[in-house]
Write a sequence for this structure.
DNA sequence: TCCCCACATGTAATCGTTTTCATGGGACGT
DNA sequence: ACGTCCCATGAAAACGATTACATGTGGGGA
């Protein structure tokens, strides 16, 4: 590999001058700069980022550890993170934890050893020691979507409580009374928030939530299918199922279709996270949409600020209900669809 | 940050011995090893991969540049690549080219500067100079899914020709005769292969393919929608649309739904790439499935072999037709989960 | 007893940059 | 004409690891 020394040799200058020329240092003569560029061109020199990072202690890279790459919600998040990071001059290394805390550990450790400038993580659960260590350590960390209570790092997330209340109002208005829910892992903040908000909203309407109507899922499709089957086997099955993420909703749809039941006539279905496919399922699915891309952008900006040494506060963006047809005929066609990220609350 | 020197100091040994102890070098006494590990533990030492890479000229990282992270096909590919790479001791840095060759260029350049050990790329089109340069350069490169003819790198891909023939046979058997196609960019190998094979299969049945029945897409949803609208505006619209990837099929579905038409009665739809959602659309979509995960695994193994200096040949795996209901009655009607949209008018 | 070798360890060079410090030579003000 | 300052440049020291080479020590074979 051709190094800066070769460029120095070819241009008859010292490595110091070459380095300065390449980094836009002001005190380099035009002549020198030209000779350097010519040598770079003819030798095909490409700076060694590894060496540079060692010297400068900056890698120009941020890490992103997400819970599941196959989940469209997280791919959208990853995409917006990469986009914003690129705009800010950073590269992104993505680690997929697959909802496993050992994998999360593995990736966080690897990223820290790689000396990334900052870390964005959506913790699978609170059980990854490395994640806690990272949050406590010198590398800037920002939690996105999920977080670990007590860990010392800003959080960028969406608040679904209000939207869940809206959803339950909607279901109530449609006459739904036997509403079951498929939760995420109790160890995740989003898992807890969604079931808590749901329970609260139900009780506001005086609707009970029997233990049988709570399916314990893991945010992946198969768990949604299993939970739904169990619901359908009940002596008094629910008239509506609320899956607290998009993959579990997919699993629920599977289970429902396998029994030859129809949505929404035989059973209603609502989901969390809006994804393009929900428009095309049979029927289109009523769901709660997060401002996913915005979440990613805000998180990256927060991380960049942290890296720059600026103080950073947590951010909460609102999620909102998107009514389609999977719970019955829409009462009113409000169609608040998308772009509604109006007021961002700051903590 | 605590470095190997601190560990050496704390354990009363030299950096050389510490390094050896940490890397499992045989000639290190048990006593020394223990003292090193104790010091590592108490100091919270974490090796600096950047420094190691500089010295060893190995980063333990491979790059993966894909065309579109939002495309489920590529996320599945990315996932299997990461999995296999991890098993082989590599980390993966993913770059999203978003079907833009300038972004592809950007990522390939960044990855090379980062001195990745090897590069997996699915070129957006042949127009990225960096990709060509990379294939010609010293860093091992393997093309996956798509490739650049003439570039000197092994290719791991699926062959869709046979499956496309099967699809056309299927359509023909169902009486479909006015079949339109939405192609990918002519600059991509997959784009060309699919339209070529399709054209060939049609002519084997004596079915014409008028120019009007060819929609030029870019593998993204919006282009599928536009192409389909144009088809539907034709004086004699097609009775079937074949979208050559899953996102364009989604767009086609959009356009069809927007006109209140029903699939497959009013118009048939077939796709390329199988994804979980195709089971849940209305109706489930007949498509051509690639062995996506296997593709990722094979590609990583090929790259690892290349890195190890072993000779590597290109690999072609077969794709196959998956018949569902979007083109008309399935050959084998196993279950009665139809019923659904009985006579209900839509929209 | 002596020699040789293997073993455990240390010293120092090295990887490719950036950056501090030193230096020489104009340009400019007086 | 002289001192001052700045500007362009170079030499060399880092950064944190790995590793070739050197060194001392102890054990085993002759």
């Amino acid at each position: 590999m051709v190094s800066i020394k070769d460029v120095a040799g070819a241009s008859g200058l010292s490595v110091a001058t070459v380095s300065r020329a390449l980094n836009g240092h002001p005190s380099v003569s035009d002549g020198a700069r030209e000779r350097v560029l010519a040598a770079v061109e003819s030798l095909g020199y490409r700076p060694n980022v590894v060496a540079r990072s060692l010297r400068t202690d900056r890698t120009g890279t941020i890490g992103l550890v997400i819970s599941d790459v196959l989940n469209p919600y997280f791919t959208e998040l990853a995409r917006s993170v990469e986009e914003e990071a690129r705009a800010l001059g950073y590269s992104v290394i993505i680690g997929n934890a697959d909802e496993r805390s050992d994998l999360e550990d593995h990736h966080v450790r690897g990223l820290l050893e790689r000396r990334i400038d900052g870390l964005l993580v959506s913790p699978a659960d609170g059980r990854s020691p490395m994640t806690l260590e990272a949050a406590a350590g010198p590398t800037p960390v920002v939690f996105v979507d999920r977080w670990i209570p007590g860990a010392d790092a800003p959080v960028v997330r969406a608040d679904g409580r209000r939207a869940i209340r809206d959803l339950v109002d909607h279901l109530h208005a449609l006459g739904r009374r036997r509403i079951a829910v498929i939760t995420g892992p109790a160890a995740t903040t989003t898992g807890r928030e969604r079931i808590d908000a749901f329970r609260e909203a139900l009780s506001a309407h005086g609707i009970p939530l029997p233990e049988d109507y709570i399916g314990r899922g893991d945010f992946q499709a198969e768990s949604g299918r299993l939970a739904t089957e169990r619901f359908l086997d009940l002596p008094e099955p629910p008239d509506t199922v609320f899956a607290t993420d998009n993959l579990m909703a997919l699993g629920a749809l599977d289970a429902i279709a396998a029994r030859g039941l129809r949505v929404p006539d035989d059973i209603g279905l609502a989901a969390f996270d809006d994804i393009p496919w929900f428009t095309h399922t049979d029927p289109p699915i009523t769901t709660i949409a997060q401002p996913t891309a915005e979440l990613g952008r805000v998180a990256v900006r927060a991380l960049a600020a942290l890296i720059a040494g600026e103080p950073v506060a947590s951010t909460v963006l609102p999620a909102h209900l998107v009514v389609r047809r999977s719970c019955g005929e829409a009462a009113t066609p409000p169609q608040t669809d998308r772009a509604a990220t109006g007021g961002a609350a700051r903590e």
Remarks:
- Residues 69 and 291 of chain B are 18 Å apart (CA to CA).
- Chain B touches chain A through 50 residues (CB under 8 Å).
